[in-house]
Description:
Layout: E1 2-3, H1 18-33, E2 38-49, E3 59-68, E4 72-81, E5 84-99
Antiparallel strand pairs: 1-3, 2-5, 3-4, 4-5
Amino acid sequence: MTLSPTLHMLNTHGTVHGGIIFSLADYAFAAASNSNCKTAVGVTNTILYMSTGLADHQLTAIAEEVKKTRRLAWYQIHVWSNDELCATMEAMVYRKNENFIE
C-alpha cells in the first residue's frame, strides 16, 4: 500500500500525522489478513513510531503474515517514508468461519 501525503495529512510540525501512518498500516493489515477471502477481524495491534514521515516522501506499508492458526493470525507491518523505516505495527486477527467472497 502506498500513500502520497497531502497538506491536510500533516501535523503542526509539518510532518505526516501519526494517525495517517497508523491508518496506512492498518489498511495494509486488513488487506493482508483478508486476502484469502476468509473473514478476519482485528483483535489488537501495537504501533511503534521510529521516525517522521516527511511531506515530500511517499509512504509505503508492507504487511507480512507471521503465523496463522485456524482461528488467529499474526502480522508484522512496516511503514517506510521513502527508504527510511518510520513505523512498525504488530497485529492479530480473529479468523471467522465464513468467507466474505464466494
